[in-house]
Design brief:
The protein is α/β, with parallel strands linked by helices. It contains two helices and eight strands.
Length: 137
């Protein structure tokens, strides 16, 4: 059994996955748009270029995602994508990228358990928890 996170977006899944690929070192494994679907005639008008399903390899994890209709989309609030990062410097780099156009939920700071810790919401509405330079207990 394997647990995979599936993120819903309000129309910007392709932009988000390309952003994660470029800035977090991910790799888009596949992406299908609504207009490419074998049942494309059942899609919403104007959704030809929206993502029906995409898969992104991010480190040892797979993320999947799609665009869903605006009447069904609600931004993420109670869940965090958590990145375990080796160094404080890399944590700072990723933090700056994720808060650009996003929102700081907990500023980057040193904690008892990590050399660098932060919580933020990126410009796509995805919540992130950054755990950098974990301290040994």
């Amino acid at each position: 059994m394997k647990l995979i996170t599936y993120l819903n977006f309000g129309g910007n899944c392709a932009e988000a996955f390309h952003f994660y690929e470029e800035h977090l070192g991910g790799k888009i494994l596949n992406s299908m748009k609504h207009g490419e679907s074998p049942v494309a005639e059942h899609r919403q008008p104007g959704w030809e270029d929206k993502v029906l399903n995409a898969t992104l390899q991010l480190g040892e994890t797979v993320l999947m995602g799609a665009d869903i209709p605006p009447n069904l989309f609600q931004p993420m609030r109670s869940v965090y994508m958590t990145l375990m990062i080796d160094t404080k410097e890399e944590t700072e780099r990723i933090y700056k990228i994720l808060i650009d156009g996003g929102e700081i939920l907990m500023p980057l700071s040193e904690q008892l358990f990590a050399g660098a810790f932060a919580q933020c919401r990126d410009r796509f509405g995805v919540n992130w928890m950054l755990l950098g330079a974990m301290k040994q207990s």
